[in-house]
Design goal:
With 237 residues, the protein is mainly α. The protein has one domain. The protein has seven helices and five strands, in the order E-E-H-H-E-E-E-H-H-H-H-H. The strands form two sheets. It has a three-stranded mixed beta sheet with strand order 3-5-4. Strand 1 and strand 2 form a beta hairpin. The protein is elongated.
Amino acid sequence: MIRIGGIYLDNNMLLLISLGVFIFSVIVQMLLTSKMRKYAKQDVSSGKSGAEVAKQMLDDNCIYDVEIREVDGFLSDHYNPLNKTLNLSSEIYHGRNVGAIAVAAHECGHAIQHNRGYLFLNLRSMMVPMVSFSARFLNIFIFLGIIMINKSVVPLKVGIMLFAVTTMFSIITLPVEFNASSRALKWIEDKQIVTRYELKSAKSALTLAAMTYVLAAIGSLAELLRLLSILNSRRED
Protein backbone atom coordinates (compact mmCIF):
# COMPACT_ATOMS: atom_id res chain seq x y z
CA MET A 1 0.00 0.00 0.00
CA ILE A 2 1.25 3.46 -0.91
CA ARG A 3 -0.29 6.87 -0.33
CA ILE A 4 -0.38 9.66 -2.93
CA GLY A 5 -1.93 12.76 -1.41
CA GLY A 6 -5.11 11.47 0.20
CA ILE A 7 -5.38 8.44 -2.06
CA TYR A 8 -4.19 4.98 -1.02
CA LEU A 9 -3.15 2.56 -3.78
CA ASP A 10 -2.45 -1.10 -3.12
CA ASN A 11 -0.39 -3.50 -5.25
CA ASN A 12 -3.41 -4.83 -7.13
CA MET A 13 -4.63 -1.37 -8.09
CA LEU A 14 -1.17 -0.34 -9.29
CA LEU A 15 -0.85 -3.57 -11.25
CA LEU A 16 -4.20 -2.88 -12.93
CA ILE A 17 -3.06 0.64 -13.80
CA SER A 18 0.14 -0.73 -15.34
CA LEU A 19 -1.84 -3.32 -17.31
CA GLY A 20 -4.33 -0.70 -18.48
CA VAL A 21 -1.54 1.61 -19.61
CA PHE A 22 0.14 -1.26 -21.46
CA ILE A 23 -3.06 -2.15 -23.32
CA PHE A 24 -3.74 1.49 -24.17
CA SER A 25 -0.13 1.87 -25.35
CA VAL A 26 -0.56 -1.03 -27.77
CA ILE A 27 -3.76 0.53 -29.10
CA VAL A 28 -2.11 3.95 -29.56
CA GLN A 29 0.88 2.34 -31.30
CA MET A 30 -1.46 0.52 -33.67
CA LEU A 31 -3.34 3.76 -34.36
CA LEU A 32 -0.07 5.60 -34.99
CA THR A 33 1.11 2.94 -37.43
CA SER A 34 -2.27 3.02 -39.19
CA LYS A 35 -2.28 6.82 -39.37
CA MET A 36 1.26 6.98 -40.71
CA ARG A 37 0.42 4.48 -43.44
CA LYS A 38 -2.69 6.52 -44.28
CA TYR A 39 -0.78 9.80 -44.38
CA ALA A 40 1.90 8.17 -46.54
CA LYS A 41 -0.74 8.17 -49.28
CA GLN A 42 -1.66 11.82 -48.68
CA ASP A 43 0.72 13.83 -50.89
CA VAL A 44 1.52 17.37 -49.80
CA SER A 45 0.69 20.22 -52.14
CA SER A 46 4.24 21.61 -51.87
CA GLY A 47 5.66 18.37 -53.32
CA LYS A 48 8.59 18.44 -50.92
CA SER A 49 10.19 15.28 -49.56
CA GLY A 50 11.05 14.68 -45.91
CA ALA A 51 14.76 15.17 -46.67
CA GLU A 52 14.10 18.44 -48.51
CA VAL A 53 11.97 19.74 -45.65
CA ALA A 54 14.66 18.78 -43.14
CA LYS A 55 17.34 20.59 -45.15
CA GLN A 56 15.20 23.72 -45.47
CA MET A 57 14.24 23.76 -41.79
CA LEU A 58 17.86 23.39 -40.69
CA ASP A 59 18.98 26.11 -43.10
CA ASP A 60 16.23 28.46 -41.90
CA ASN A 61 17.56 28.01 -38.37
CA CYS A 62 21.17 28.59 -39.47
CA ILE A 63 22.18 25.01 -38.66
CA TYR A 64 24.70 23.78 -41.22
CA ASP A 65 26.67 21.14 -39.30
CA VAL A 66 23.94 18.47 -39.10
CA GLU A 67 24.14 15.63 -41.61
CA ILE A 68 20.85 14.23 -42.94
CA ARG A 69 21.05 10.46 -43.38
CA GLU A 70 18.78 7.77 -44.78
CA VAL A 71 18.45 4.76 -42.46
CA ASP A 72 16.60 1.44 -42.50
CA GLY A 73 13.51 0.62 -40.47
CA PHE A 74 9.92 1.83 -40.09
CA LEU A 75 9.54 4.83 -37.72
CA SER A 76 13.25 4.53 -36.90
CA ASP A 77 13.71 8.28 -37.34
CA HIS A 78 15.80 10.10 -34.74
CA TYR A 79 18.31 12.88 -34.16
CA ASN A 80 21.66 11.86 -32.69
CA PRO A 81 23.23 14.76 -30.74
CA LEU A 82 26.52 12.87 -30.31
CA ASN A 83 27.47 12.99 -34.00
CA LYS A 84 24.92 15.61 -35.11
CA THR A 85 23.10 13.39 -37.57
CA LEU A 86 19.44 13.55 -38.55
CA ASN A 87 18.51 9.95 -39.32
CA LEU A 88 15.39 9.50 -41.45
CA SER A 89 13.91 6.16 -42.50
CA SER A 90 13.57 5.62 -46.25
CA GLU A 91 9.82 6.24 -46.11
CA ILE A 92 10.38 9.61 -44.45
CA TYR A 93 13.52 10.57 -46.35
CA HIS A 94 11.95 10.12 -49.78
CA GLY A 95 8.29 10.54 -48.83
CA ARG A 96 6.40 13.53 -50.22
CA ASN A 97 3.43 13.19 -47.95
CA VAL A 98 2.03 14.62 -44.73
CA GLY A 99 3.50 11.90 -42.51
CA ALA A 100 7.00 12.32 -43.94
CA ILE A 101 6.86 16.10 -43.57
CA ALA A 102 5.63 15.92 -39.96
CA VAL A 103 8.24 13.39 -38.83
CA ALA A 104 11.15 15.07 -40.63
CA ALA A 105 10.24 18.46 -39.15
CA HIS A 106 9.83 16.92 -35.69
CA GLU A 107 13.32 15.42 -35.80
CA CYS A 108 14.66 18.78 -36.97
CA GLY A 109 13.03 20.18 -33.86
CA HIS A 110 15.43 18.06 -31.81
CA ALA A 111 18.39 19.33 -33.83
CA ILE A 112 17.28 22.90 -33.12
CA GLN A 113 16.92 22.08 -29.41
CA HIS A 114 20.49 20.80 -29.40
CA ASN A 115 21.75 23.85 -31.25
CA ARG A 116 19.94 26.21 -28.87
CA GLY A 117 20.96 24.34 -25.71
CA TYR A 118 17.42 23.36 -24.74
CA LEU A 119 17.49 22.50 -21.02
CA PHE A 120 15.47 19.28 -21.03
CA LEU A 121 17.33 17.86 -24.03
CA ASN A 122 20.61 18.53 -22.23
CA LEU A 123 19.29 16.82 -19.10
CA ARG A 124 18.12 13.82 -21.11
CA SER A 125 21.47 13.55 -22.89
CA MET A 126 23.33 13.65 -19.57
CA MET A 127 21.13 10.85 -18.24
CA VAL A 128 21.77 8.47 -21.15
CA PRO A 129 24.81 6.72 -19.55
CA MET A 130 22.94 6.30 -16.25
CA VAL A 131 19.86 4.96 -18.03
CA SER A 132 21.95 2.49 -20.05
CA PHE A 133 23.58 1.22 -16.84
CA SER A 134 20.25 1.06 -14.97
CA ALA A 135 18.43 -0.75 -17.76
CA ARG A 136 21.16 -3.39 -17.85
CA PHE A 137 20.87 -4.37 -14.18
CA LEU A 138 17.47 -3.27 -12.83
CA ASN A 139 15.60 -6.45 -13.81
CA ILE A 140 18.22 -8.58 -12.08
CA PHE A 141 17.99 -6.64 -8.82
CA ILE A 142 14.18 -6.46 -8.92
CA PHE A 143 13.96 -10.22 -9.50
CA LEU A 144 16.40 -10.91 -6.67
CA GLY A 145 14.60 -8.37 -4.50
CA ILE A 146 11.23 -10.08 -4.92
CA ILE A 147 12.48 -13.60 -4.21
CA MET A 148 14.73 -12.48 -1.33
CA ILE A 149 12.34 -9.96 0.21
CA ASN A 150 11.78 -12.02 3.35
CA LYS A 151 15.53 -12.18 3.97
CA SER A 152 16.74 -8.76 2.84
CA VAL A 153 15.22 -5.65 1.24
CA VAL A 154 18.58 -4.39 -0.07
CA PRO A 155 18.34 -5.94 -3.58
CA LEU A 156 14.81 -4.56 -4.03
CA LYS A 157 15.94 -1.11 -2.86
CA VAL A 158 18.75 -1.15 -5.41
CA GLY A 159 16.33 -2.29 -8.11
CA ILE A 160 13.93 0.51 -7.21
CA MET A 161 16.68 3.12 -7.38
CA LEU A 162 17.73 1.86 -10.81
CA PHE A 163 14.12 1.81 -11.99
CA ALA A 164 13.64 5.36 -10.68
CA VAL A 165 16.40 6.52 -13.03
CA THR A 166 14.59 5.10 -16.09
CA THR A 167 11.31 6.57 -14.86
CA MET A 168 12.84 10.01 -14.49
CA PHE A 169 14.28 9.68 -17.97
CA SER A 170 10.86 8.92 -19.45
CA ILE A 171 9.37 11.94 -17.64
CA ILE A 172 12.14 14.30 -18.82
CA THR A 173 11.56 13.02 -22.36
CA LEU A 174 8.02 14.46 -22.39
CA PRO A 175 8.87 18.18 -22.67
CA VAL A 176 11.60 17.30 -25.19
CA GLU A 177 9.11 15.58 -27.50
CA PHE A 178 6.31 18.12 -27.08
CA ASN A 179 8.67 21.03 -27.68
CA ALA A 180 10.10 19.41 -30.83
CA SER A 181 6.58 18.89 -32.21
CA SER A 182 5.63 22.47 -31.38
CA ARG A 183 8.68 23.79 -33.24
CA ALA A 184 7.92 21.53 -36.20
CA LEU A 185 4.27 22.48 -36.55
CA LYS A 186 4.95 26.21 -36.20
CA TRP A 187 7.67 26.12 -38.84
CA ILE A 188 5.75 24.11 -41.46
CA GLU A 189 2.76 26.42 -40.96
CA ASP A 190 4.80 29.64 -41.11
CA LYS A 191 6.65 28.48 -44.23
CA GLN A 192 3.41 27.21 -45.80
CA ILE A 193 4.94 23.80 -46.38
CA VAL A 194 1.46 22.35 -45.92
CA THR A 195 -2.11 23.56 -46.36
CA ARG A 196 -4.46 24.02 -43.39
CA TYR A 197 -6.04 20.64 -44.08
CA GLU A 198 -2.62 18.98 -44.29
CA LEU A 199 -1.56 20.75 -41.09
CA LYS A 200 -4.42 19.07 -39.22
CA SER A 201 -3.16 15.68 -40.38
CA ALA A 202 0.39 16.56 -39.31
CA LYS A 203 -0.85 17.60 -35.86
CA SER A 204 -2.79 14.34 -35.56
CA ALA A 205 0.29 12.26 -36.40
CA LEU A 206 2.56 14.09 -33.97
CA THR A 207 -0.06 14.03 -31.21
CA LEU A 208 -0.36 10.25 -31.45
CA ALA A 209 3.42 9.94 -31.43
CA ALA A 210 3.59 12.10 -28.32
CA MET A 211 0.96 9.94 -26.63
CA THR A 212 3.26 6.93 -26.83
CA TYR A 213 5.79 8.83 -24.69
CA VAL A 214 3.10 9.98 -22.26
CA LEU A 215 1.85 6.44 -21.76
CA ALA A 216 5.39 5.12 -21.37
CA ALA A 217 6.00 7.66 -18.60
CA ILE A 218 2.71 6.86 -16.84
CA GLY A 219 3.35 3.13 -17.08
CA SER A 220 6.87 3.49 -15.74
CA LEU A 221 5.66 5.65 -12.85
CA ALA A 222 2.89 3.18 -11.99
CA GLU A 223 5.37 0.29 -11.94
CA LEU A 224 7.76 2.30 -9.76
CA LEU A 225 4.95 2.99 -7.29
CA ARG A 226 4.04 -0.70 -7.29
CA LEU A 227 7.61 -1.65 -6.38
CA LEU A 228 7.62 0.97 -3.62
CA SER A 229 4.32 -0.45 -2.37
CA ILE A 230 5.86 -3.93 -2.19
CA LEU A 231 8.80 -2.51 -0.25
CA ASN A 232 6.49 -0.65 2.14
CA SER A 233 4.43 -3.80 2.69
CA ARG A 234 7.59 -5.67 3.70
CA ARG A 235 8.52 -2.93 6.17
CA GLU A 236 5.07 -3.04 7.76
CA ASP A 237 5.27 -6.81 8.40
